[in-house]
Amino acid sequence: MSMLKHFILTGCAMGLLASNHDLLAADDDFKPLFNGKDLNGWVLTNTPAETWSFEDGMLKCTGKPIGEIRTEKMYQNFIMELEWRHMVPGGNAGIFVWADDITAKGVPFHRGVEVQVLENAYGQSQGHTTHGDIFPIHGATMTPINGRGGSRAFPTEERSKPSPEWNHYRIECNDGAISLSVNGKLVTQGKDASPRKGYICIESEGGVVHYRNVKIQELPDTPVKPEQIAIANRGYRSLYNGLNLDGWKLNKEGEGNWHSQDWILACDGKAESVKGQMLSTKERFKNYGFLFDIKPGQGFDGVAVSSGMLPTQYTKIGEWSRLEGVIENGKMSISVNGEQVTSDNPVPDSGPFELYLVGPAEFANIYVREIKK
Q1: What percent of the chain has pLDDT over 90?
Q2: H-helix or E-strand containing 12?
Q3: Are residue 223 and residue 250 in the same domain, yes or no?
Q4: Whether residue 181 sits in one domain with residue 41
Q5: Which domain-ending residue is among 233, 254, 274?
Q6: How far is 197 from 173, CA to CA, in rounded Å?
Q7: Hey, how many other C-beta atoms are within 10 angstroms of the C-beta on 347?
């Protein structure tokens, strides 16, 4: 019996060692998503550097302006772990997975699947909780598990701790299925997501949030259809920082007519001349692509880019439209809401990116990209 007991104890000990080894090996497979010093490996999609800072290896987000950063790399199947805490009660933030390269039309957020990061004092309703909802946003799709008739997945248990306590998230994404464990327990799940390969984003949405120990373990790829892959990097960078008009020039007549309103750049259309309705970058460009969203107001009568009038008959008052174009060798091609249209106006070969506006309008998501030869 003593010999049998010895074998049993030895076997158990070896089993525990093997188990611990497996756990350590699994943990070793995780890689940090931040270096603790700067945003190397990440893209400032539509927020400025001032929004993000590091202290003792911890990422701090001011919450202003509303917008996002994203990874330089696309991910398909992975496990992501992180700790977060809101520093102000009622704060709002989120983690996006499988997202596009830039923000969706008329909003400061990407198309993708959002894992909600809400502070408890934000309050709960039939439509949302503060304990780890998961939902597709701005054109993405997902089937919720434990839903309430819509596309949002609700947690089965309330486990989030209030500000300023730390919370731990484990997000598992695999073959279009997504799950969230909050503080050590699986609570929220979804499946059949599309896209199911894309970028990871961290959201700035008004709340002062801290993140630490953000890491990822990539899992083997699974078959994915082209339509299930997010839009890959097109080289766009933001021209508007969401805080002020740094990087832009205003004619004197335009002072007081252009207003920085967080992620929206607005012009009231009250300038006495076209010069007062003009905004131009300090930076100069040659052969480039551009993209911006515009929501015309009452009295709107047109917009031009770098002296080339755009075909705004495709836009509607009070609705966001996306204009995307290329200026190359003195010619401009343009699409409105994905529909290719013509523009016969000649434009300068090089110069600043300029917006000429007749009447009031709001702008968002102003991007440019270099055309590489």
Answers
A1: 76
A2: helix 2-28
A3: no
A4: yes
A5: 233
A6: 9
A7: 21
Tell which residue, 102, 99, 105, 103, has the closest CA to residue 323: 105
Structure tokens at 64: 């202003």
Q: What is the C-alpha radius of gyration for the chain, rounded to an integer number of angstroms?
A: 24
Dig out the tokens for 208 from the structure: 């002062």
Domain of residue 272, CATH code:
2.60.120.560
Q: How many residues are listed for the chain in this entry?
A: 373
- pTM given for the model: 0.90
Check if the beta carbon of residue 338 is closer than 8 Å to that of residue 318: no
Strand 264-267 vs strand 141-145: parallel, antiparallel, or unpaired? unpaired
- Structural domain includes residue 2: no
Tokens 């174009």 locate to 325
Which structural domain, as residue segments, surrounds residue 290? 238-370
Domain's final residue, options 188, 212, 233: 233
Six token digits for residue 251: 């004619």
| 193, 177 contact by CB (below 8 A) | yes
Rounded-to-integer distance, Cα 229 and Cα 76, Å: 9
Q: Is 12 exposed, middle or buried (0-12, 13-18, 19+ CB in 10 A)?
A: exposed
Number of Cβ within 10 Å of residue 225's Cβ equals 10
> What's phi and psi for 49, nearest 5 deg?
-60, -30
Strand order in the sheet with 308-309: 248-250, 278-286, 350-358, 302-305, 308-309
**Both tokens assigned to 347:** 């434009």
Q: pLDDT tens digits, residue range 328-339?
A: 988 888 899 999
Q: What does the pLDDT look like over 222-250, one tens digit per residue?
A: 999 999 999 999 999 999 999 999 999 98
Please give the biggest Cα pair distance in the chain: 101
The dihedral formed by the CA atoms of 182, 113, 100 and 27, expressed in degrees to the nearest 10: 30
The identity of residue 267, as a single letter, is: C
Q: Are residues 245 and 225 in the same domain?
A: no
Q: How far is residue 302's CA from residue 316's CA, in Å, rounded to a whole number?
A: 11
For 132, residues 6+ apart whose C-beta sits below 8 A from its C-beta are 115, 116, 155, 159, 160, 169, 180, 182, 187, 188
| Among the listed residues 322, 340, 339, the one whose alpha carbon sits nearest the alpha carbon of residue 111 | 322
| For residue 253, pLDDT beyond 80 | no
